[in-house]
Design brief:
homodimer; Rossmann fold; Dihydrodipicolinate Reductase, domain 2; 2 domains; 7-stranded parallel sheet; 14 strands
């Protein structure tokens, strides 16, 4: 059994817990949180520890901790801290900062002899992997990533900051016409507006302000101005009823040429009814890989690009070769 | 530069050659063939060696040989022979024999200190990889592989053996309705007939025999009897004009559940205008990985499941982390 601990018990932490339960070789042995009393109420049976006080001292036998906090404030602090005692897996997803974060984690992980799998999940994560193998197999090619349909937390937060907005949920929607062009073998250079549109569901404090709110959201630079953005006003009841789930998904397409002019198109697609549960599932598979890498004497930071895929699987090499090849 | 040699200069060997030309870090330094004089005519500039006589004695500096012969007669003999002197990559695709072949190659590769990447390509190969990661990320799931639309060499050969058939080309066609059912989140248990149909283009010696030929093909056990098979008679001219290319493709779908009942669907798809050129491209990326594995002190047999994806790429880890994650 691989003993797993969760750090941070929000949406993603819950996703990791349900995933551990579905993997027969893994066991959840602890949850680290900033609100231990409250979490202990919810998860009887599993030891709940204080993420700010118990890291250095706990005597629970932990093979891998899975960091489930945010990429802005939590992971950059918790990663370098937990890696001193444990192997770690995280879903650090600030794309521009991944090289720096990798180097920081690599240094500490090597110093303390542990394995850190960073930036795991679907993007960064599987989508990164698909972009890399697409480019490796088709070096003369163009790659495209489309996201959605699904909820973007960052864009929902941005819309929520407009004055008069009580709550907002933003869906990123890939344009089917753009995907079809790539599937048909053309390799267009799309603008942002040509790849995705944005739909924002908003509860307004005062419905007479709808026009102003709509305009302020649609014109917000970096988040909405570069896209066709639709703002739809709804009630709190509708928000609760229709927008409580976190679906997401996306596409990675690689369109390349081989030989004289033979077109080869690779497409990876995921349709997710629950983004945090799927991300949690991937983190759990990566925890298995982290454990095995450590067992085989490795140390340092790894992304999903550095992990032999077989290490993610609960099955042995023999089973994989006879049943999955 | 990574020095690559090709063994066997048919369709796949040609695909490998054009792919090596598109990878700036690779160079084709030799071709081994059973008909050296003939091949030397075609490829001036590249040394052409006799695959039955020169293996043990050539002094061409070769890092990796790519075996491009058939899985039935060539690779099982050439693999264990070439691995004694060189790292190898092959596309051995007799699925049921992969475990045995892996063990044989692993033994010899370890004895001689080389790296053998076996059963690379798209299926076995990328499709195996997608089946494994689908199962690893969604342990409660069902996996589906659809092939086509594309030419199956084995089925074309089988049809050609019917008496009165001058030439035949068989297309495997996945049933869109079946794929749609999986995409919609159901997890049916399909019969073979419910997943694929087969279309065979045939040149008959004598057109008055069409009914008999059609019946003999459609009723052939293992190849056609389990499928809806359509036989279409064409002329030699039409065969030449419409069926000279080797398109192929396929789908790997994993449909799983997380949490209580959230459905997560992963789909990998390739659409190939030239099957041998794409397979060749993959073998070349695997040659890069074989070279790097050997450089890092490893030896033995590997499948694509055992290779960290970053090793397939011409880009450094730094570039991958900053531009592909």
């Amino acid at each position: 059994m691989i003993n797993v601990a969760i750090v941070g018990y929000g949406n993603l932490g819950h996703g990791v817990r349900t995933s551990v339960e579905r993997n027969p070789d893994m066991e959840l042995v602890a949850i680290f949180t900033r609100r231990p009393a409250q979490v202990q109420e919810e998860v009887r049976g599993t030891p709940v520890l204080d993420s700010q006080e118990d890291v250095a001292t706990t005597d629970v036998q932990i093979d891998v901790v899975i960091l489930c906090g945010g990429s802005k404030e939590d992971t950059p602090v918790q990663g370098p801290l937990f890696i001193r005692r444990f192997n770690t897996v995280d879903s650090f997803d600030t794309h521009a900062d991944i090289p720096d974060y990798f180097n920081r984690m690599d240094d500490v992980a090597r110093e303390f002899g542990n394995v850190a799998v960073i930036s795991a999940g679907w993007d960064p994560g599987i989508f990164s992997l698909e972009r890399v193998i697409g480019d490796a197999f088709l070096p003369v090619s163009k790659g495209y990533t489309f996201w959605g349909s699904g909820v973007s937390q960052g864009h929902s937060d941005a819309a929520r900051k407009v004055s008069g907005v009580v709550d907002a949920r933003q869906y990123t929607i890939p344009l089917e016409s753009a995907i079809e062009q790539v599937r048909e073998g053309t390799t267009p250079g799309f603008s942002k507006r040509e790849m995705h549109k944005r739909v924002v569901y908003v509860i307004a404090e005062d419905d007479s302000e709808q026009d102003r709110i709509r305009r302020e959201i649609a014109e917000m630079p970096n988040y909405f101005a570069e896209y066709d953005t639709e703002v739809i006003f709804i009630t709190g009841e509708e928000m609760q009823r229709d927008h409580a789930a976190y679906p997401h998904g996306g596409f990675v397409l690689t369109s390349g040429q081989t030989g004289k002019d033979n077109r080869q198109i690779l497409e990876y697609k995921c349709q997710l009814e629950s983004n945090p549960e799927f991300t949690g599932s991937i983190l759990v598979a990566c925890a298995r890989a982290a454990f095995r890498l450590k067992q085989s004497g490795q140390k340092g930071a790894f992304t999903m690009l550095d992990i032999p895929p077989a290490l993610l699987s609960q099955h042995s090499g023999d089973v994989l070769r006879s049943s999955f090849m």
